[in-house]
Amino acid sequence: MNAPLTNTALLEKDQDHMIHPLHHTAGHAAGKVWVSAQGSHLIDADGNRFIDGLSGLWNVNAGHGRRELADAAAAQMREMAFCSSYAGSSNRPAIELAERLSEMCYPQINHFFFTSGGGEATDSNIKLARWYWKTRGQPEKIRVISRLWGYHGVTFAAMCATGITGYWPMFEPRIPGFSHIPSPDPYRYPMPEDGSSQGIAAANELEKEILKLGAETVAMFIAEPVQGAGGVIVPQDDYFPRIREICDQYDVLLVVDEVITGFGRTGKMFALDHYGVQPDLLQFAKAITSGYLPLGGIGMSDEIAEAVKASDQPWMHAYTYSGHPTTCAVGLATLDIIEKEDLPGQAASKGAYLLEKLHTELDGHPHVGEVRGKGMMCGVELVENRSTKELYPAEWGVGSKMTKAMISHGLFTRMRSEVVLIAPPLTTDEATLDELVSAVRDSVVDVFGE
Questions:
Q1: Which of 70, 155, 284, 410 shows its CA 20 to 30 Å from the CA of 364?
Q2: What is the pLDDT of residues 74-107, one digit of tens each?
Q3: pTM summary value
Q4: What is the pLDDT of residues 297-333, one digit of tens each?
């Protein structure tokens, strides 16, 4: 029997035949080929063990190796792996999942459309918002406002909503009708000179943009409750209540992107609950199956759903895998875990522990600008000058240097250029969280000195 291929040998085959998301040949040269995973750890082809510091890609909330999720998929596949969910056809797991979601979601969100992931969910909400305003006799309401550092996926319309500018240049020109307002980032958004609320001032950026564009042209505002891939940016407590007021005042749909924050990551089942606000449209993905199969979707308010149902025309929006019975069966099994093991409660308590440890180990370092977080998602922003908050030049390579250092200390996670992104599985034990924090601390010392 042939010996298993090493990481290096597998990587050579990978380089010969695969094109990756965010493909970068030089950046992949020292990549990892993962062969197994358990709990909060990944194991590469050479048998090296690493803490999964980002839950895969923010999605493996229940941890790796959950047999009950594999069993749910296998059982459904044996019974019926796939059927269409186009009008005139349905299946039990999809029906049951929609019903379960209506019970745990925001009170006014009771109707759901399923996708294969978050980018498709963004596109679905953009199209739905346009159709909704047409049913209300306002077809000119087509514009989408989002935020800088917001991430909403990279399908074409979703990419236009995404406010991380590095995703744009290769594919421009972008679709017309998308604009971005500043992030409310408490670390970097300017404090109002009159001493008023920073959160209100940041929220009022939305009102300024609506008035500039003309409220009669704006269909929706889309935002993550906590900006994830953009650097774990936690808004001020008064930010979203003011956003809700502005959307109501100008008849703009509030779309909440809970692809990362949904299903417990921030310590609540859905993160906008932290701020006492309800959206008109919701989008989710990732943790609904703990990443075990691709599944996403949108939830719509009763009013918007009624507009879809009351139309004498079909809603001409369709995905082959919408309502896929196997992925929905795994979604149901994941919701069982989320509720039985109280993953939101675990995220709240463990997240507080994680954030406190990060503060203890990193506050005061001359190149740590800010440590921040909400539940089990944290960010460590690294700066050249703490007093001025000035960043290192891009060519200095903070991200690549920190990534290499963290791997050397047994931690695999991602950077947003100068921000360390930390979001381990919600089931991670405190001893592993301690190891994770030590790896980040030691990596900062390796790269920047004591």
A1: 410
A2: 999 999 999 999 999 999 999 999 999 999 999 9
A3: 0.96
A4: 999 999 999 999 999 889 999 999 999 999 999 999 9
- What order do you get walking across the sheet with 41-44 strand by strand? 34-38, 41-44, 49-52, 411-412
- What are the pLDDT digits (tens) for 349-370? 999 999 999 999 999 999 999 9
Q: Tokens 């996708």 — which residue?
A: 115
**All residues at 6 or more sequence positions from 49 whose CB lies less than 8 Å from its CB, including other chains:** 41, 42, 43, 410
CATH 3.40.50.2300 describes domain 68-340: no
Residue whose C-alpha is closest to residue 271's, from 223, 305, 319: 223
Token readout for 190 is: 């300017």
Segments making up each domain of the chain, as ranges: 7-62+342-448, 68-340
The secondary structure of the chain in percent helix, strand, coil, rounded to multiples of 5, reads 40, 15, 40
Of the listed ranges 207-211, 310-314, 418-422, the least confidently predicted one is: 310-314
Residue by residue, DSSP assigns 197-228 as -HHHHHHHHHHHHHHHH-GGGEEEEEE-SSB-
Gyration radius from the chain CA atoms: 22
Tell me how far CA of residue 300 lies from CA of 101, 105, 180, 280, 394, in angstroms: 11, 10, 23, 6, 41
Q: Give 1's pLDDT tier (boundaries 50, 70, 90).
A: low
Q: Domain 7-62+342-448: which topology? A: Aspartate Aminotransferase, domain 1 (3.90.1150)
Say which amino acid occupies 233: I
Contact 379, 260 (CB under 8 A): no
